[in-house]
Fold Lrp/AsnC family transcriptional regulator.
Amino acid sequence: MPMELDKFDRGILAILQRDARRSAELIGTAIGLSASAVQRRIARLREEGVIAAEVAIVDSRAIGRPLTLIVDVEVERERSELLVSLKQWIAAEPAIQEAWYVTGEGDYVLIVTARDVDGYDALMRKLIAENANVRRFQTRVALGTLKRGQLVPVEPTSE
C-alpha cells in the first residue's frame, strides 16, 4: 500500500526534485516546518522508498557522449529465460540510460548515449551477438533535447 503523503511531504518532494542539496532549514522555511521536522520526514521518505535515489545529473556532451539514440528492440520469442538474459544484458550496459518494456510493434525502447556512430554501431553489434533472441532493432537519432529529466509532478493535497 502506498505511503500517505500530506502537504508537507509533497512540498518537500517538489523542492528536492529540483535541488536535492537544499538544506532542511530552507525547505522548512518554504513549507512552514522546522528543520528537524523536515529532516525526519526526508528520512521517512527515504526509508519508505518514496525517494528512490539522490544523484548528480551529468551533461553527456560535457563528458564526450554527445549522441543520444532512441532504439526500438523487437525480440524473437518471449520465453522467460531469453527475456531474463536480455534484461540482464540491458541492465549491465552503461551506455543504456533507460530501458522500457512496451506495447506496440517493438518490445523494448532503449535510450542510449554514444561518443559517435561507430561507438553506437559497436554496441548494437554486441547486443545482437550476445542476445540471439533479438529479432531486429530500429534506431532514431535525437537531433535536439526539448526536455529531459526524472521530475515527477507532485500535486498538492486537498488539505
Observations:
- The first helix runs from residue 7 to 18.
